[in-house]
Amino acid sequence: MDARTQPPALRTGSRLPVITLTSVASGRPVSLREPAAGAPAILALPPRPERFAEYARTFASKRQGYTYWAGRPIVIISGDLDNATKTAAEIGLADTAEGQIGETTVLIDAAGSLRRKWGLADEEAAVIVADRWGEVYSVARASDPDDLPGTGAVDEWLRFIATQCPECGVIDEPGLGEWRAD
After folding, report:
1. Among 7, 61, 129, 143, which residue's CB has the most CB atoms within a 10 Å radius?
2. What angle do CA 131, 173, 11 make, to 5 degrees?
3. Three-state SS for 166?
4. Looking at the 3D structure of the chain, how many domains does it have?
5. Is residue 174 part of a domain?
6. Is the separation of the CB atoms in 26 and 16 below 8 Å?
7. Among 14-28, 38-52, 99-113, whose mean pLDDT is lowest?
């Protein structure tokens, strides 16, 4: 989907909402925009994520590459705490009682309000990469996991964001068509 047809709330150059979601691991609130925690690389799964299980496991397993570039891998699951915890375990995202794989945080969009705000259809997943202040650099939406960017593309976006140097005259704002990792 190109920038002209993306909903205004989920497009390159927009900001992630100031919102907290519940952690599957601790049940505590976690903010999507938390500058000290790093640049979020978000995988928002559809309400029935079975088709995206392998993609989600691969996304979560690449956390070391993401965190090398100060990325913060996040997987968002719709549902209440019990159902989201069960779903995370069923698709292989929660291999321990902590509800996460390594440093990949699994969060709950309890009422699906974030998905609605982002204009995601029930069968769509999205991969969003933003800087640590929440400015969105990349958005990919798809109903098929094969149409989502590979983990290498996510890693490239995080590397690009991490190496920005406004003092040096390097591009520091996302622009349509200026630079693409995929």
Report:
1. 129
2. 70
3. helix
4. 1
5. no
6. no
7. 99-113
Q: Which domain holds residue 127?
A: 20-168
Residue 38 is predicted with a pLDDT of 86
Residue burial 80-106, b: 16+ Cβ < 10 Å; e: rest: eeeebbebbbebebbeeeebbbeebbb
Beta bridge partner(s), residue 109: 78
For residue 131, is it within any domain?
Answer: yes
How many other C-beta atoms are found inside a 10 Å radius of the C-beta of residue 2? Answer: 9
What DSSP element (H or E) covers 164? none
When comparing pLDDT for 53 and 5, which is higher? 53
Least confident of 34-43, 91-100, 113-122: 91-100
32, two tokens: 């999507």
Q: What is the DSSP letter of 33?
A: -
Separation of CA 20 from chain center: 14
The model's pTM: 0.82
- Domain holding 95: CATH number? 3.40.30.10
Backbone phi, psi, residue 134, to 5°:
95, 5
Q: Does any domain span residue 97?
A: yes
Assess if residue 59 is contained within a domain: yes
Q: What are phi and psi of 40, to 5 degrees?
A: -75, 130
Where would I find the H helices in 73-127?
A: 81-90, 113-117
| Confidence check: pLDDT of 32 > 70 | yes
Overall average pLDDT of the 83-95 stretch:
79
